[in-house]
Amino acid sequence: MGLPRSAPSVPSQGRMKKHIKSSQPVNDDYIRETKNAVILDLGKKVNFSDVRSNQQEYKISSFEQRLMNEIEFRLERTPVDESDDEIQHDEIPTGKCIAPIFDKRLKHFRVTEGSPVTFTCKIVGIPVPKVYWFKDGKQISKRNEHFKMRREGDGTCSLHIDSTTGDDDGNYTIMAANPQGRISCSGHLMVQGLPLRSRLTAAGQSHRVRSRAQERDKEPLQERFFRPHFLQAPGDMVAHEGRLCRLDCKVSGLPPPELTWLLNGQPVLPDTSHMMLVRETGVHSLLIDPLTQRDAGTYTCVATNKTGQNSFSLDLTVVAKEVKKAPVILEKLQNSGVPEGHPVRLECRVIGMPPPVFYWKKGNETIPFTRDRISMHQDTTGYVCLLIQPAKKSDAGWYTLSAKNEAGIVSCTARLDIYAQWHHQIPPPMSVRPSGSRYGSLTSKGLDIFSAFSSTESTMVYSCSSRSVVESDEL
Questions:
Q1: DSSP string spanning 176-202?
Q2: d(CA 112, CA 297)
Q3: Alpha helices, DSSP H only, in 189-254?
Q4: Where does the Ig-like domain start and stop, copy by copy (predicted)?
Q5: Selection from 170, 172, 176, 175 nearest residue 187 by Cα
Q6: Cα–Cα distance between 461 and 170 in angstroms, integer?
Q7: CA angle at residue 80 from 77 to 81, to 5 degrees?
Q8: What is the pLDDT along the chain (475 residues), one digit of tens a residue?
Q9: 172, 293, 356, 428: which could join 352 in a potential S-S bond, CB 3.0 to 4.6 Å?
């Protein structure tokens, strides 16, 4: 009872005793080996009653699915070693070409350690695609005797493992490529150990007794790790001061990497204007709002996990914010008058941001820039000048300067008079009338008043007479 099928059937009691006496040493070895076989078989039946030695399909978690999607994304965009297939694409058919398509995709399997497993898929395409196999993102060579790769004429491709081990646990990906494109799909293999069998092995092998299912229940992290790899990274940027600036990147890796942002080698810490976000799609973002001149420089994003780190850098240029200020008149136009034929300048000083545009008017008529004898000048300090040379009688009138920018408008006005060349201001003649003073008794010396008095007196008399004349005129 309990012996394997190869054991002899139960004989009669006398025959059994005779057989034992004649071959006692041989039976001891045989029983010892048979005992180990029975224990191993019972361990499979008792502890893995729900797991057969044959491969079983199972449903993977969403995390494992995302991991396989990232592996496929990377493989389809990175160069690979030459395929071991004998297919060549040097001669491309002139007819219709079709990119590779999966008619049957890989499945996910769960097997016990030591059991065989086979991944199978079917690929179609024109021309016939080349096939590449990968394990955990690393290409499997056809020279590897542990894996047997086959390809049928109908496009069926298979990867077979005769006896699985704990090292075979992982993600398996097949990629098909032809000149029209690349396509890939993945399947996961879970290899479960034998806890009862581990009791018969050395103590140093005890870490292999636990099944993969028990390890996944106890440890949230996977045993397979991948170095961080940036799938999306921004280039150098130019942004405007005062606005929102967003730096987006996407990174893969296992375990999920942690991101650190640096500005000119110094860490960027989250605050009211700097935020780090992660979207559901796996895109990491650095938000800067509002952007200032202090945010300009070289940004470096470093992704780190247990297997290592990866990074990228970019230069951010911040365009200074334009300050708007309405024009202001610092020096107004002044009323002026000049003789005809002389040059005349109407000058003013106005500032504003952005620098204003100037318009000149005479009365209600705008003065064109290309008018004869009239030129307009200005400089960066706000100095504005209207030059007329030579001035004519027709140039007389009211002149207005208007300064306008995005923030506002301002204007000022002045009068220009033009005089004729012959016109001079001649003072009116003074009338002298005799008075009843002592000047009337100086008849012997005539009207020479200065000779009749001393210099001091003559000065005083002249002053008095002048005042009397002015008073006479006013009266």
A1: EEETTEEEEEEEEEEEE--HHHHTTS-
A2: 56
A3: 195-198, 212-218
A4: 100-184, 228-317, 327-417
A5: 172
A6: 131
A7: 170
A8: 444 444 444 444 444 444 444 444 456 666 666 666 666 666 544 444 443 446 777 777 777 787 777 777 777 777 666 665 666 655 555 556 777 888 888 998 988 888 899 999 988 877 788 888 898 888 888 888 889 988 887 788 999 999 898 888 888 999 888 888 888 899 988 888 766 544 445 344 444 444 554 555 554 444 578 888 888 888 899 999 988 999 999 988 888 888 989 998 888 999 999 999 988 778 899 999 999 999 999 999 988 888 888 888 999 999 988 788 899 999 999 999 999 989 999 999 999 988 899 999 999 899 987 778 889 999 888 899 999 989 999 999 999 999 999 889 999 999 999 988 765 555 555 655 555 555 544 554 455 555 545 444 444 444 444 444 444 444 3
A9: 356
Q: Give the C-alpha separation, 451 to 268, whole Å.
A: 102
C-alpha span between 158 and 135 (Å, rounded): 14
Q: How far apart are CA 132 and CA 75, in angstroms?
A: 10
Which residue shows structure tokens 């995005």? 406
**446: how many CB neighbours lie within 10 A of its CB?**
9
The token pair at 462 is: 């002249």
138 token code pair: 């690393």
Q: Look up residue 19 and give its amino acid.
A: H
First to last CA, the chain: 163
